[in-house]
């Protein structure tokens, strides 16, 4: 869909020194153009535009030249010249056989060789390592760059070449079946046509090299037959093949640099063709030149160095001042050849003398006229289309093909080229196309300067009929464009920025600069008159590269990347940015557009190197195309992705795109080499063109969601639903986009969706997740009321709201059923009740069957059968059972059996069948007989319905006691002794209550029950010892000592218990209070010394483990960071890395991506397996996936232990000093202080601020994600945060004794 756009044109002033130029060459390294006449050589610099005479062939003309060549024969003329960069010289071939080198430093002509037979052609290989000469007697001479002969061959060879195909006799006429003609037909010899050469062949040999220099094609006239023959030779001058001989082949030949085609010319009796051949000699396609068969002749064919454009230089057969010379530029796509540009030149002095492509820039063309004008053209590829974000923009795209303008409105239909919706024929080849600001007209300028105006959009009020509307585009009129100072120069830009004003860029030969010209365009509908006149002109300091306009601004880019702003009053002004600096791209950007970012005018530019700039910020480094859509900047990259950049952000916040962003939803993978053609405004369609030329339409997710946001904001729910259903967008977005708007307009929503039958689909996809956060993050900037979302269930809220609307409408049973079923707790009983109500009013009509079928589509038939059975309505049960796969032999006897039962026992049996045991117990409680109570008690015990049983049998004493006793036994089995004591008291079973108290450890209640049971003293003492043992197990040593002292009178055992619990002060107090000072020496003092040793050992163990875990944690974290940097740089880990890359290196992978341990939940099918998995997760084994978390957890345990030891150590220090063990106390205080300080210092090192952040699972949203994967990832992330131990704190406790320090 691209056209060749002329972005720069330079025409140097004609020099009086040059009269009849014949050829030229360019030294691109120094910027010098060497122009040759038949007998002289001139140079001109592109920079200063001055022409200097350098050398001549004859001494008689040497007065005004720097140097000349002696000894040449009269009539010697230059036939070819080439700039040889390796020799810093210009090689000149003379028709009399001399080869001359012009040395440029200093200027000197040197004859390096001669050929007695004369030279008719000279051709250098593309790498300039070989040079080929053809003599006048058709002899090939191949030489090195130093002019040493490599080989010589005759150009005309009788053999085909070394690539001659092998003929095995298949397919011969003699072997064919000839039917009724018989065998005699096989003997008839086919008449061979007498092939002739073209009458307009120049008779000269021509050579063209392949791009890699391995082969060249030589076109010569066969001396015997007079036919032109093209032969392919290898680099060592070996004949490779002979091109298929065709009638009317002419002299022009050019080998495509990429090597697949050899272009030539064939003149047929009725037309003029460009034909192509393969290297093996077979023809491979052609196209027709747009001229009469005897009107023009092809002077030369020339491919550009990228093989994308074929230049055709044509001359008239009958020279005349009214006939033009042409240079046509052809390109191919989708197996069709397009004439993209046509350059016209009149007869001398503006006729073309020579033309060539630039050896470096693929789309730069150089040309010299006979009169000495040098002209250069810079082209670029661009899609010619209507621009703007209005609804009137039809997405019009025009494809230039000579006089044919292929027009298609992509909003209406997307047609791949070379097809189109409308084909417009212009007076001459199209050069420029411009659209009016209102996009209802199109101005076409042809290569002959004619301007043609077309109507694109017919006003419906002015249209006569539908056929008149369909006839657009419609030709309005044609006018001559204002003439300029030379036929070589025409406007190369036309920006229609106002309804009556055009801006154009034209090269002024006199001032040697570009001029910005303003034209006035007037069209009268009454008399159909079109007039274009030049209004004003402004000179430009540098050549203009690009121009773009919107409704209010016109931006102009110069060739140094600087941007100018056009004003009608002042002219050209610098474009000033917000920071006060002048706008200038870092490099020249041929593609440029004006747009707005966050309301600020910005300029987007794309350079030839693929760098995309937004103002002076580089956004991408490998961009292949871009397009400004309504709310997005679309671009494709060489990573084969399409990116959508929102225009609702500040341009200064844009960052360089990297390949790491490709997983984001704003990126979409596209086919390799795809480029954006257009994106329809106020639509989601983006049209891409593939390298082979076909078109593909995509709907990027970002554009889709933006379009849906606009539709939902305008409450166009039906259109939004249709788009979402077509593109599989989650229907929850209809609500989640703006919940308040949805709820306020739910009646309108229901009304619109009922039209397209989409209410069921919306309700069926409802879920409690917010898809604007989970599935489509970043696309909705609307504030959400999180409190409302957390306080209510979204599914229930939406269903209830829609049900209220449906209740007020008739004929909405199906959506009502869907809403009732979709609720968190499906209201299936209500659904069946509505179906039964419909049955009562309609009988067993189609409506009942449809409602029941729809319900069974949403709900499992067995579940619905159970619900119907639970409603105790056997008619509903039979209705549902008929729609199921159940065997009537199974459910009919069951139903008949139920019908025979008593009503309460019937419901009891149904509830037991449905496992609704509380309801079953309620129905069974209506019976007072003992056998029914035994059945009820069994039901209570089997399903733990004790609380309900106590409530139902509260008025019956004996059943109540039985249930309470059973409940107490159940609570004892569950180790819930406190509640069991209460239940046994209700059942008046005091011994069982006392036993439960012993298991509970509540000694107060136990001795109360003992008194109520009137136990003996011996029983109370035994009870006291049992309770003391229970309290010691629960580490309630002070309470155990109190029980032993008060209820057993055992002082010694009580002191032993206090010493065991470290209650030193209480033990000393009891010993002195009870007069047992001897126990201080026998029990307390030895225990104090033993406790000191135990604390010393504990402190040593804690310190050792703390240091070990801390060292390992540092290694693990360092390994993780190193591996993360390596993965970010894209390097692969090598085996010979340092010790950091040990088994522990797997930790980095576990922290950077989801490890197998994360997914272990899916395999843990039971609680036991889950407990094992959780226990193995925090393994301290080196290299385990969660080693860092395990180390942090272990260090947290040590820190908590040290914090809890402060009080115990303080009490122990006090009693040690009291017993005069100052040295032992000092040792303990010293080592514990050291441990405590070390732990305090390392807390911030262990619990890094980013620890919780690094453990989170990265979001897995995007076009490849599913709802289940997003929810699972969020659950895993939340679980990981819960598993992390909190940061422990060291409480300030006054435990130290200062004089021990």
On the 0-100 scale, what is the average pLDDT? 81
General shape: elongated
Count the DSSP helices.
Answer: 36
User: β content, as a range?
Assistant: 25-35%
Helix content: 25-40%
Oligomer: single chain
The biggest sheet amounts to:
5 strands, mixed
Characterize the structure shown.
- This protein has 1301 residues and is an alpha+beta fold.
- 34% of the residues lie in helices and 26% in strands.
- The chain has 36 helices and 56 strands.
- Mean pLDDT is 81; it is low at 460-469, 1130-1165, 1252-1260 and 1277-1282.
Topology:
Layout: E1 3-11, E2 23-27, E3 32-36, E4 40-45, E5 51-56, E6 67-68, E7 78-84, E8 89-94, E9 98-104, E10 107-114, E11 119-124, E12 130-135, E13 139-144, E14 149-154, H1 184-187, E15 206-209, E16 215-221, E17 228-234, E18 239-242, E19 249-255, E20 262-267, E21 272-277, E22 283-288, E23 296-303, E24 310-316, E25 325-333, E26 336-345, E27 352-357, E28 364-369, E29 374-382, E30 384-385, E31 396-401, E32 404-409, E33 422-425, E34 430-435, E35 441-446, E36 450-455, H2 466-470, E37 474-480, E38 493-498, E39 501-508, E40 513-524, E41 529-539, E42 544-549, E43 554-558, E44 563-567, E45 571-574, E46 591-597, E47 600-606, E48 612-614, E49 617-620, E50 623-628, E51 632-637, E52 641-646, E53 667-669, E54 675-679, E55 686-689, E56 695-698, H3 701-713, H4 717-727, H5 733-736, H6 739-744, H7 746-756, H8 759-764, H9 786-791, H10 794-807, H11 813-822, H12 828-842, H13 846-858, H14 861-870, H15 874-882, H16 888-899, H17 903-913, H18 917-924, H19 930-943, H20 946-952, H21 957-973, H22 977-986, H23 990-1000, H24 1003-1012, ...
Parallel strand pairs: 5-6
Antiparallel strand pairs: 1-29, 2-3, 3-4, 4-5, 7-8, 8-9, 9-10, 11-12, 12-13, 13-14, 15-16, 16-17, 17-18, 19-20, 20-21, 21-22, 23-24, 24-25, 25-26, 27-28, 28-29, 30-31, 31-32, 32-33, 34-35, 35-36, 36-37, 38-39, 39-40, 40-41, 42-43, 43-44, 44-45, 46-47, 47-48, 48-49, 50-51, 51-52, 52-53, 54-55, ...
Helix pairs in contact: 3-4, 4-7, 10-11, 11-12, 11-13, 12-13, 14-15, 17-18, 19-21, 20-21, 21-22, 22-23, 23-24, 24-25, 25-26, 26-27, 27-28, 27-29, 28-29, 29-30, 29-33, 29-34, 33-34
């Amino acid at each position: 869909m691209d056209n060749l756009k002329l972005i720069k044109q330079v025409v140097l002033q004609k020099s009086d020194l040059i009269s009849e130029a014949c050829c030229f060459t360019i030294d691109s390294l120094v910027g010098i153009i060497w122009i040759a006449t038949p007998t002289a050589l001139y140079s001109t610099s592109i920079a200063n535009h001055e022409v200097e005479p350098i050398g001549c062939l004859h001494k008689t003309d040497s007065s005004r030249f720097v140097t000349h060549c002696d000894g040449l024969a009269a009539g010697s003329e230059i036939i070819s010249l080439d700039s040889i960069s390796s020799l810093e010289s210009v090689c000149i071939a003379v028709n009399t056989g001399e080869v001359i080198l012009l040395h440029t430093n200093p200027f000197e002509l040197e004859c390096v060789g001669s050929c007695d037979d004369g030279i008719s052609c000279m051709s250098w290989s593309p790498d300039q390592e070989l040079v080929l000469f053809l003599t006048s007697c058709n002899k090939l001479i191949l030489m090195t760059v130093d002019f040493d002969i490599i080989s010589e061959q005759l150009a005309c060879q009788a053999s085909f070449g070394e690539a001659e195909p092998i003929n095995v006799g298949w397919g011969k006429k003699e072997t064919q079946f000839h039917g009724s003609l018989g065998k005699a037909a096989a003997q008839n010899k086919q008449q061979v046509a007498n092939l002739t050469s073209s009458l307009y062949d120049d008779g000269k040999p021509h050579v063209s090299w392949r791009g890699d220099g391995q082969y060249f094609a030589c076109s010569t006239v066969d001396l015997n037959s007079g036919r032109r023959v093209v032969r392919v030779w290898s680099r060592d001058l070996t004949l490779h093949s002979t091109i298929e001989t065709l009638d009317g082949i002419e002299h022009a030949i050019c080998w495509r640099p990429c090597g697949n085609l050899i272009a030539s010319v064939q003149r047929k009796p009725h037309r003029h063709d460009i034909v192509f051949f393969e290297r093996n000699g077979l023809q491979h396609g052609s196209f027709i030149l747009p001229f009469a068969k005897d009107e023009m002749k092809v002077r030369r064919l020339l491919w550009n160095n990228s093989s994308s454009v074929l230049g055709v230089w044509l001359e008239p057969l009958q020279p005349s001042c009214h006939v033009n010379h042409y240079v046509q530029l052809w390109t191919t796509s989708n197996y069709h050849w397009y004439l993209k540009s046509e350059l016209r030149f009149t007869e001398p002095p503006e006729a073309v003398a020579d033309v060539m492509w630039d050896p470096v820039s693929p789309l730069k063309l150089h040309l010299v006229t006979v009169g000495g004008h040098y002209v250069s053209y810079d082209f670029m590829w661009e899609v010619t289309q209507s621009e703007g974000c209005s609804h009137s923009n039809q997405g019009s795209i025009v494809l230039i093909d000579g006089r044919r303008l292929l027009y298609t409105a992509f909003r209406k239909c997307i047609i791949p080229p070379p097809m189109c919706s409308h084909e417009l024929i212009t007076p001459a080849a199209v050069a420029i196309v411009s659209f009016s600001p209102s996009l209802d007209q199109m101005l076409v300028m042809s290569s002959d300067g004619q301007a043609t105006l077309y109507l694109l959009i017919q006003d419906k009020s002015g249209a006569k009929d539908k056929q008149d509307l369909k006839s657009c585009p419609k030709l309005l009129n044609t006018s001559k464009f204002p003439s300029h100072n030379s036929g070589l120069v025409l406007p190369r830009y036309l920006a229609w920025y106002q309804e009556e004003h055009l801006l154009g860029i034209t090269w002024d030969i006199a001032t040697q600069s570009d001029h910005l010209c303003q034209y006035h365009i007037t069209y009268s509908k009454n008399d159909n008159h079109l007039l274009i006149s030049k209004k004003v002109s402004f000179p430009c300091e540098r050549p203009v590269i690009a121009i773009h306009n919107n409704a209010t601004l016109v931006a102009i880019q110069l060739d140094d990347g600087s941007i100018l702003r056009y004003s009608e009053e002042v002219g050209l002004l610098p474009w000033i940015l917000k920071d006060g600096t002048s706008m200038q791209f870092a490099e020249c950007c041929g593609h440029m557009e004006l747009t707005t970012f966050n309301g600020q005018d910005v300029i987007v530019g794309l350079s030839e190197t693929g760098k995309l700039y937004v103002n002076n910020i580089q956004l991408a480094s490998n961009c292949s195309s871009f397009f400004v859509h309504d709310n997005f900047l679309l671009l494709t990259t060489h990573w084969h992705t399409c990116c959508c950049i929102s225009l609702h952000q500040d341009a200064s916040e844009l960052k360089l795109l990297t390949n790491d962003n490709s997983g984001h939803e704003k990126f979409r993978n596209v086919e390799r080499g795809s480029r954006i053609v257009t994106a329809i405004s106020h639509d989601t369609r983006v049209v891409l063109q593939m390298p082979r030329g076909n078109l593909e339409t995509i709907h990027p997710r970002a554009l889709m969601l933006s379009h849906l946001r606009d539709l939902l904001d305008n409450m166009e729910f039906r259109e939004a639903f249709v788009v979402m259903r077509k593109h599989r967008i989650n229907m929850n977005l209809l609500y989640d986009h703006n919940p308040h708007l949805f709820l306020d307009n739910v009646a309108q929503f229901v009304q619109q969706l009922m039209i397209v039958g989409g209410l069921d689909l919306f309700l069926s996809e409802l879920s409690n997740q917010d898809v604007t956060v989970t599935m489509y993050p970043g696309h909705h900037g609307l504030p959400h009321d999180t409190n409302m979302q957390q306080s209510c269930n979204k599914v229930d809220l939406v269903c209830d709201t829609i049900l209220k609307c449906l209740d007020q409408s008739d004929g909405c049973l199906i959506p009502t059923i869907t809403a009732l079923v979709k609720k968190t707790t499906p209201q299936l009983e209500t659904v069946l009740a509505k179906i039964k109500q419909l049955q009562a009013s309609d009988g067993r009509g189609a409506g009942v069957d449809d409602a029941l079928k729809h319900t069974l589509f949403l709900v499992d038939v067995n579940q619905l059968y159970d619900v119907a059975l639970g409603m105790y309505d056997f008619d509903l049960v039979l209705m549902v059972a008929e729609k199921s796969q159940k065997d009537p032999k199974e459910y009919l006897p069951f139903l008949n059996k139920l019908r025979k039962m008593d009503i309460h026992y019937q419901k009891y049996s149904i509830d037991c069948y449905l496992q609704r045991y509380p309801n079953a117990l309620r129905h069974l409680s209506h019976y007072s007989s003992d056998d029914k109570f035994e059945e009820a008690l069994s039901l209570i015990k089997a399903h733990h319905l004790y609380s309900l049983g106590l409530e139902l049998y509260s008025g019956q004493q004996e059943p109540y006691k039985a249930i309470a006793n059973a409940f107490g036994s159940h609570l004892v089995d569950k180790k819930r002794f406190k509640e069991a004591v209460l239940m046994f008291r209700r059942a008046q079973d005091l011994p069982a209550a006392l036993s439960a108290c012993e298991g509970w450890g509540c000694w107060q209640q136990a001795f109360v029950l003992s008194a109520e049971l009137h136990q003996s003293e011996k029983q109370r003492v035994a009870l006291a010892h049992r309770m003391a043992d229970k309290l010691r197990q629960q580490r309630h040593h002070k309470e155990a000592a109190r029980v032993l002292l008060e209820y057993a009178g055992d002082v010694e055992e009580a002191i032993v218990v206090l010493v065991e619990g470290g209650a030193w002060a209480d033990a000393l107090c009891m010993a002195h209070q009870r007069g047992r000072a001897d126990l201080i020496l026998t029990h307390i003092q030895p225990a104090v010394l033993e406790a000191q040793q135990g604390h010393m050992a504990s402190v040593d163990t804690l310190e050792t483990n703390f240091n070990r875990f801390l060292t390992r944690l540092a290694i693990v974290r360092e390994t993780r960071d190193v591996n993360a940097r390596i993965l970010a740089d894209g390097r692969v880990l090598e085996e010979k890395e340092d010790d950091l890359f040990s088994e522990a290196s797997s930790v980095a992978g576990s922290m950077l991506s989801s490890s197998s341990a994360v997914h272990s939940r899916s395999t843990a099918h039971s609680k036991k397996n889950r407990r094992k998995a959780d226990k193995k997760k925090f393994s301290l084994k080196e290299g385990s996936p969660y080693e860092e978390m395990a180390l942090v957890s272990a260090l947290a345990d040590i820190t908590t232990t040290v914090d809890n030891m402060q009080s115990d150590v303080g009490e122990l220090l006090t009693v040690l000093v009291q017993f005069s063990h100052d040295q032992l106390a000092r040792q303990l205080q010293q080592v514990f202080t050291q441990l405590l300080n070390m732990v305090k210092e390392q807390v911030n090192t262990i619990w890094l601020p980013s620890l919780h952040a690094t453990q989170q699972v990265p979001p897995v949203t995007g076009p490849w994600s599913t709802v289940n994967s997003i929810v699972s990832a969020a659950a895993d992330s939340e679980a990981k945060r819960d598993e992390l131990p909190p940061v422990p704190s060291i409480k300030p406790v006054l435990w130290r004794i200062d004089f021990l320090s």
